[in-house]
Automatic annotation (TrEMBL):
It holds the Pfam family Thiolase_C_1. The lineage of its organism: Bacteria, Bacillati, Actinomycetota, Actinomycetes, Pseudonocardiales. This is Acetyl-CoA acetyltransferase. Residues 235-378 form the Thiolase C-terminal domain. PANTHER family: ACETYL-COA C-ACETYLTRANSFERASE, NON-SPECIFIC LIPID-TRANSFER PROTEIN-LIKE 2. InterPro entries: Thiolase, Thiolase-like, Thiolase_C_2. One of its GO terms (molecular function) is acyltransferase activity, transferring groups other than amino-acyl groups. Keywords: Transferase.
Length: 382
């Protein structure tokens, strides 16, 4: 509870997105995002004394990133737990700031996955117990969870398709989203099957992109010209690494990470105005909405159906278009934070949620393995 409201995000930015100029590297995109986020925060690069990053490209990502940016931080955290890493870094950075170890944290990520031909760069070796079945990593693992949810709770392919349609409708309001053309339920259902029951349009994009987040103490944040987004609560949890070790294919560790984040924040799901979820596949928002407490287990399909999480629906989810339509450069977690902060600052233009005071960002890593939940609030929530 001592972390509640003690730190705030004061700067966020993306790099170039989509398919970037030829020859740019992941670190170039980190550099772009960093320059833009520091300018957004009105903070000098020399003030950054904590660096938090993760990468599939650079095994020693902290040192590579510090060298490229030309900084000499007194604290580096390069812990990698997949796409949730950057939401997890919020907790680590807030703890370090609260302890007086650092004053200004920079959380960064960059990837050129699309320019690299869509190849998913991964340092992990195949699981010897799963490899004989020739599953397509990671989509077959998510397809298994989808099939189980459909079998156990009656979730339909139409409900899954509605997740993709809602994401596209939000993306149409986002000028930097990669896919903005209209999308129908029928187009999702009739798209090429990739791993039954998931079609191509049930799967996230493959793009280039990077992001940066600047976090500092709440006291310092109030002295800066911009509107801060205060970190109210954050929790992380890990249930497995390989899908064959997942205790229940329909229950993720978000049930634990969300509970921890809400407890720290002193809030409940009813207090949340806008939600940014890691939607690598259409099953993800359904599982996370259930596990985070926005609906009961098994009711996620009905909860997202018929535009209920789309613009004008009962609950705004993935207002930037998500990994399904906005961008997904290998790991997506940092973009949930960026959009959550922008919503609280009122910076989202046509997709802005009026009166948003509480925003939730949720990261997912591995194959539904690592889950991290962060809750942000405006000054009025403190």
């Amino acid at each position: 509870m001592t972390l509640r409201g003690s730190t705030a995000v004061v700067g966020v930015a993306e790099s170039d997105l989509g398919q970037v100029a030829h020859g740019l590297t992941p670190l170039d995109l980190v550099g772009q995002a960093t320059v833009r986020a520091l300018a957004d925060a009105c903070i000098q690069k020399s003030e950054v004394d904590g660096l938090f990053t993760a990468s599939s490209y650079y095994p020693m990502s902290g040192m590579d990133t510090a060298e490229y940016l030309g900084i000499r931080p007194s604290y580096i955290d390069g812990s990698t737990i997949g796409g949730s890493s950057f939401v997890s870094h919020l907790l680590h950075a807030a703890a370090a700031i609260n302890a007086g170890v650092i004053s200004t944290a920079l959380i960064v990520y960059g990837s050129t996955q699309r320019s690299d031909g869509g190849r998913l760069v991964s340092p992990s070796k195949p699981n010897p117990f799963e490899a004989p079945y020739r599953a397509r990593y990671p989509i077959s693992m998510y397809a298994m969870a989808t099939a189980r949810h459909m079998h156990q709770y009656g979730t339909t392919r139409e409900q899954l398709a509605d997740v993709a349609v809602a994401a596209r409708q939000w993306a149409q309001l986002n000028p930097v989203a990669f896919m903005r053309a209209p999308l129908t339920r029928e187009e999702v259902l009739s798209a090429r099957m990739i791993s039954d029951p998931l079609t191509k349009l049930d799967c996230c994009l493959v793009t280039d992109g990077g992001g940066a987040v600047v976090l500092t103490s709440a006291q310092r944040a109030r002295q800066l010209p911009g509107q801060p987004a205060f970190l109210l609560g954050v929790g992380e949890a890990t249930s497995h690494r390989s899908i064959s070790a997942m205790p229940d294919l329909t229950v993720t560790a978000a049930a634990e990470s969300g509970g921890r984040a809400f407890e720290m924040a002193g809030l409940t799901p009813r207090d949340v105005d806008v939600i940014e979820l890691y939607d690598a596949f259409t099953i993800n928002p359904i599982l996370f909405l259930e596990d985070l407490g926005f609906c009961a287990k098994g009711e996620g399909g009905a909860f997202v159906a018929e535009g209920q999480i789309a613009p004008g629906g009962k609950l705004p989810v993935n207002t930037n278009g998500g990994g399904l339509s906005y961008c997904h450069p290998g790991m997506y977690g940092i973009f949930t934070v960026i959009e959550a902060v922008r919503q609280l600052r009122g910076d989202c233009g046509a997709r802005q949620i009026r009166g948003a005071d509480v925003a939730l960002a949720h990261g997912n890593g591995g194959v539904l393995s690592s889950q991290v939940t962060a809750i942000f609030g405006t000054e009025t929530t403190l």
